[in-house]
Amino acid sequence: MSAPIGRTRARGVDTLSLDATGSRNALSASLVSALAEALADCGRDPDVRAVVLTHTGTTFCAGADLRDPPDPHALVALLRQIVELPRPVVARVTGHVRAGGLGLLAACDIAVSSTAATFAFTEVRIGLAPAVISLPVLPRADPRALARHYLTGARFDPAEAVRTGLLTACADDVDDALAPVLEGLRRSSPEALAETKRLLTARVLETFDRDAAELTALSARLFSSAHAREGMTAFLEGRDAAWVV
């Protein structure tokens, strides 16, 4: 089996690619572990100025892998690792993002997508709630817009994701949009970048400190519920869940 994370480097910027296209880059236990290891390597390497988190295939991340879901504690640790990494983390999205994938975006410092991307918090449609991913999402997103997206599970476009605060920007050519961002990071002092990131993420980390235990327990409880079993079974079988009217 090939590694679920690809890695390349160009002028001090390491690009980590979610590379499990067979599962639409869903957050499996193995992908979460591999991404955490790659991020740790980047954080230890003094030659890494910034990290770009991107993907292969047409989906950035389909959310949790329902056949091999990660332990909620491991997902919390991964999201916090992105927030705390002493390097800016920039999400580059050219495909679709669902559920837990939006947690990855919210944990990143800067997130840019193509105009072809789509987004949805689909948890409620399979009997779950966006519990763990709320740790980075809630401090950074507009509450009124988020209520609509959390409660309906409906798909929304990149312009709405920018307005909601889940994206920094969207563009027809995502690489053209990212070029000045990466150039700015390359021209900045590594020590100053780390300290500036601390200022920007303080509120997000307060949410982790306050709510992580409660939301991890909620996630575990919902995953083992009868509604979640029905919702996930219905999703895997390509049918409506029993509660759909």
Walk me through what this model shows.
- With 245 residues, this protein is an alpha/beta fold.
- The chain has one domain (1-174, 189-245): 2-enoyl-CoA Hydratase, Chain A, domain 1 (Alpha-Beta Complex), CATH 3.90.226.
- The chain has nine helices and nine strands.
- The protein has helices at residues 29-44, 72-84, 100-107, 134-140, 143-152, 158-164, 174-186, 190-223, 226-237; strands at 5-10, 13-18, 50-55, 59-61, 89-93, 96-98, 110-114, 119-120, 169-171.
- The strands form two sheets. The protein has a six-stranded mixed beta sheet with strand order 1-2-3-5-7-9, sandwiched between helices.
- Helix 3 (100-107) crosses helix 4 (134-140) and helix 4 crosses helix 8 (190-223).
- The longest helix is centred in the last third of the chain and has 34 residues, at 190-223.
- The mean pLDDT is 96.
Features:
single chain, 245 residues, alpha/beta, 2-enoyl-CoA Hydratase, Chain A, domain 1, 6-stranded mixed β-sheet, 3-stranded parallel β-sheet, 9 helices, globular, Enoyl-CoA_hydra_C, Enoyl-CoA hydratase family protein, Enoyl-CoA_hydra/iso
Shape from CA axes? globular
Query: What average pLDDT do the residues reach?
Result: 96
Strand content: 15-25%
Structural class: alpha/beta
- What ranges have pLDDT less than 50 throughout 5 or more consecutive residues? none
Secondary-structure element string: EEHEEHEEHEEHHHEHHH
N-C termini distance: 42 Å
Rg for CA atoms: 17 Å
The main pleated sheet reads as: 6 strands, mixed
Strand line-up across the major sheet: 1-2-3-5-7-9
CATH class: Alpha Beta
Number of helices: 9
Remind me, CATH topology?
Answer: 2-enoyl-CoA Hydratase, Chain A, domain 1
Helix content: 40-55%
- What is the CATH architecture annotation? Alpha-Beta Complex
Oligomeric state: single chain
Beta strands, count: 9
Count of structural domains: 1
What would you give as the CATH superfamily? 2-enoyl-CoA Hydratase, Chain A, domain 1
Family: Belongs to the enoyl-CoA hydratase/isomerase family.
InterPro entries: ClpP/crotonase-like_dom_sf, Enoyl-CoA_hydra/iso, Enoyl-CoA_hydra_C, Enoyl-CoA_Hydratase/Isomerase
Protein name: Enoyl-CoA hydratase family protein
GO molecular function, one term: catalytic activity
